[in-house]
Specification:
The protein has about 200 residues and is an all-alpha fold. It is built from ten helices and no strands. The protein is elongated and about 65 Å long. It has one domain: Orthogonal Bundle (Tetracycline Repressor, domain 2).
């Protein structure tokens, strides 16, 4: 296969993934058909099956590749910030930027992961937030070593940070009544100064 043909196949596959995630986010995977995805991608339905054997395989690829790529891009964007806690705050801000720039991806991440029991029966090890939790735990471990924060339960710390981030994102997506940028600034203040009276 020529390089140009291979690139065309990759581009077509990426297009199907991108449009599939938009449709899944809008309709939910259980209500989405392969025909819906093909229509959104402006291709024949049979073309989808050239790249993916089933809707379930396509859904898995959407979750694993596109969502994974977005998570890794946030981590990559913050990796060179020298201060560990500043990196954590920037990580939170980068996540907000993703929500605002690509709400369909954020909707897919937050909604689909909670609603599709059939998917989790097929792929029980899938957990998109685990990568976030592991990253926050790693930053927490470094912050403790650098004496930036006190020695604390890293699992609880990671769940606190990622849980707030996930809930804020869900609230913004569903109700549109939350200024998540201001929320992030307030969370940064609480993390930095605690909750005790000054």
């Amino acid at each position: 296969m020529s390089n140009q043909r291979a690139a065309t196949r990759r581009n077509k596959r990426d297009l199907i993934l991108e449009k599939a995630i938009e449709v899944f986010a809008q309709k939910g995977s259980q209500q989405t058909t392969v025909a819906d995805i093909a229509k959104k991608a402006k291709i024949a339905q049979g073309t989808v099956y050239v790249y993916f054997s089933s809707k379930e395989e396509l859904l898995n690829e959407c979750m694993q590749q596109i969502i994974g790529t977005e998570i890794e891009s946030i981590i990559e964007a913050t990796k060179d910030i020298p201060d560990t806690m500043d990196r954590l705050f920037s990580f939170f801000e980068q996540h907000i930027a993703l929500v605002k720039a690509k709400p369909y991806i954020a909707r897919f991440l937050t909604m689909e992961a909670r609603q599709n029991d059939d998917f989790f029966a097929l792929y029980p090890d899938y957990n998109p937030l685990k990568r976030y939790l592991d990253y926050v735990k790693d930053l927490g471990r470094k912050a403790i070593a650098e004496k930036r924060i006190r020695d604390l339960d890293l699992d609880a710390f990671a769940y606190l940070i990622v849980g707030v981030m996930d809930l804020a994102m869900t609230q913004w997506l569903v109700y549109k009544d939350l200024d998540i940028a201001s929320m992030a600034a307030s969370i940064r203040d609480i993390l930095k100064y605690g909750v005790n009276e000054k």
